[in-house]
Every structure is written in structure tokens, then in C-alpha cells.
Predict the structure.
Amino acid sequence: MTMNDKSFEPKILAFCCHYCAYASADLAGSMRLQYPSGVRILRTPCTGRLEVEYYMRAFENGADGVLVAGCLEGGCHFIEGNLLAKKRVAAIKEILQESGIVKERLRMINVAASQGPNLVAAIHDMVNTVKELGPSLLRGKTNGPELELKEFETLNSQQ
Ligand code: FES
């Protein structure tokens, strides 16, 4: 599969915080807004709960891109969880760049629970970016082409 392969459907894991981003995904669903089938939405209590290993495991498990969606700055249910996530994402982007995975494969956005259309627009934008980049160099080299969500079950079981 090459960068210009039009059939390439990126596997995107979207970590969505329970209080805003996941609620906005629910709203988008009730508005019948759609996003590509390669996108997997995973609820997390707060983006601040996402340790570095969760991001790395997402790529190791076949994600071509990872989107992190948290509450608007100042609106995190856990006060500063999204600010912590913002710092982590910036640091992980550097690691991704140095390891050849490319930092644009990771992106953080902030949405309010009422912004379902914004979330869907951000997902489409992320998918388009990753389509341009082509498949991640880790794809197919670890656990296979399918994104394994069970890796992340502990995120919600500890809520
Ligand atoms: Fe939404 Fe913290 S609860 S980012």
C-alpha cells in the first residue's frame, strides 16, 4: 500500500473523554452525522487519564492515527486533565517524529458536549491528514491490521 493508494482506509483510534467529547460523539450520532468506518471511538474518563503507554500501544496495535478529544480548556471535569493531556501529546509527538512514525499521526482537539458537528469535522480532517501520510510504518508489524480495542479496556473499567 502506498501513500497515493486511494483505497487506503486509515485506522484511527479516537480517545474521547466521557464528559464532553464522548457526549459530543453521542450527539453527532443522534444527528446522524457520519465518519469513516476505520474510525474507532473509545471512551476514556478524562484525557488526563491517558498515560504515554496508551498512545504507544495504539500505534503498536495498528492505528494509523490517534485523535485525542477532550473538554474545552477550562472545562475539564477533573480541572486540569486536558491540560496534562496537551503536554503529554506534545511530548509524544516528538517521540513519534524521532521514531519515524510522524507526529501528524497524533492530534488533540477540544470540544464541548454540544459540539457534535465539530467533533465529526475534526475526525474527517484527521482521516484526510492520515490518508495523505499513508499507512503507519508499524501497521502489520505487530498485532496485525485490526485495531485491538481490548487493549484499552482497563481505561473504562477503572472509571
Ligand atoms: Fe474531559 Fe477531562 S473530563 S478532558
In short: Residues 12-137 form a domain with the Rossmann fold fold (CATH 3.40.50). The first helix runs from residue 21 to 30.
